[in-house]
Amino acid sequence: MIEKPILVTGATGYVGGRLVPKLLNAGYRVRALGRSVAKLKGRPWSEHPAVELMAGDVLDKASLEKALEGCFAAYYLVHSMIADPKKYTETDRLGAQNMVEAAAKAKINRIIYLGGLGGGDDRNLSRHLRSRLEVAQILQSGPVPTTFLRAAMILGAGSASFELLRYLADRLPILLAPRWVDTPVQPIGIRNVLTYLQGCLEHDEVLGQTFDIGGPEVVTYKRLFQIYAEEARLPRRWIIPVPFLSPRFSSYWIHLITPIPSSIARPLAEGLRNPVICHDHRIREIIPQELFDCRQTIRLALEKIEQQRQDTCWMDAGTLVPQEWVYCGDTHYAGGTILELGYRIRLQASREEVWGPLVRLGGETGWYFGQGLWFLKGLLDRLVGGVGYGGRRRHPQELRVGDALDLWRVLEVNPPRQLMLVGEMKLPGEALLEFKVQDMPDGTSVLEQHSRFLPKGLLGIVYWQLMLPIHRFLYPNLLKGIARAVGKPMVEGPTRIRAKQPGRRA
Q: For 301-334, how does the pLDDT look when each residue is reduced to its tens digit (9 = 90+)?
């Protein structure tokens, strides 16, 4: 095992933020470099005993030299996403040159660079891809051997390309698309990318070499849309190519329809016109692994309910969740649309006293407020073929995972702290209802209610907006009803809880 630390630049980025825990789990010492230590500390692996957090920037050669001191190898996982091509080309060039000089001074063993797939002799190559190739040329011109992995589109929740695919498919039943929808592409899952990156640390055969990395199948973007729609259980998406749509214009409507900024959407749209197919498969023999196809990777990335159960911001440092999921610290638009509404109250009661009435929700006890509204919701659900209200409950005072609870089913129960329910109604999306109880130092306790909705398509977003006034009336009063059932004074609330993640909204 290599004793010296491994430097990961761009450790707060999409790939870097997932590579660090993978290396830590494999037993490596990692030095994570980012412009902000505070942002690094927000990562779930920040307190791992084998990780060192360091502030620095590849554009600041002095900070890069300090970060590389005593390292065995460095991952170069940074690139600029600036709309102005002159600026991002100059920025990328400066960062790469600084890495060459700092790595030579530190006498590290190797550099591993992840860039884009594209031929250097292709005159139609997008400016961003040309810049990535220039970065590779600069890195490989130095004395430290640089392994260049040329990746096709990376699939996984949080990847800019995947989020673009997700939002367009979710929100547009009919997509007027540029000609790039018929461009062939060889997508690769994020877990396969990470395995190749780690493997480049462990196989000397890759030193100074360039490799294409892609998944097991070649598809068009049009086919990717259909696969996504099938896995997301959306109606068939109709895609109509419009030849005159330019990348610049495409970036504007992408920005209007999705939360992806036009400064990022434009280089993405420009790059989508280029076929990205692997012609060199040598790395599959050097670093063998099971390559996930598009459907497998998209299916994992769409496990929204499981992702809501696992708080990736506060998991144990040694815990690894699927790399296809959204990670804490990912860009705000990662994970698709998550709509959330929450309230909290504080009671002059212990956590155990609050838990008693909470765990008796539903069934014969009812919902403490708005019983007619819950019944009406169940009636409407029954009319569209759902389970309906029905007073379903196995035991009046006990809940287990998997129990039916009126319109819901118990997804998680951790007495006396947490109760999470998943909706069984016929809805254009997936509904979660969570209650949390926390003891406070002054002897009071806080009860929180979180309603989350994971919409499917535009209909799901419209449904949420139509129900929002009812929910804003229902849930605060539900908390008041629970407080009355506890029989202790409510000293604060109900107050609104704002979504912790900027990508969520209510």
A: 888 656 665 444 444 444 455 565 565 556 655 6
Cα gap 386→373, rounded to integer Å: 16
Residue 505 has pLDDT above 70, yes or no: no
* DSSP characters over 196-233: HHHHHHH-GGGTT-EEEE--S--EEHHHHHHHHHHHTT
Quote the CA–CA distance of 133 and 116 in Å, as a whole number. 7
CATH number at residue 348: 3.30.530.20
CA distance 172 to 250: 14
**Is residue 329 a part of any domain in this protein?**
no
Per this entry, what is the length of the chain?
506
Q: Is the dihedral of CA 477, 304, 155, 312 positive or negative?
A: positive
Please give the angle made by the CA atoms of 413, 419 and 423, to the nearest 5 degrees.
Answer: 105
The helix (run of H) or strand (run of E) holding residue 16 is helix 16-25
21-26 contacts: CB < 8 A, separation 24 or more?
Answer: 21/45, 21/48, 21/317, 21/320, 22/194, 22/198, 22/320, 22/323, 23/198, 23/201, 24/48, 24/50, 24/51, 24/317, 24/318, 25/318, 25/320, 26/198
Let me know whether 398 and 481 are in one domain.
yes
Q: Are 341 and 472 in contact (CB under 8 A)?
A: yes
- pLDDT value of residue 320: 52
Angle between helices 85-106 and 127-140 (to 10 degrees): 20
3-state secondary structure 485-497: HHCCCEEEEEEEE
Residue 380 has a CB neighbour count (10 Å cut-off) of 14
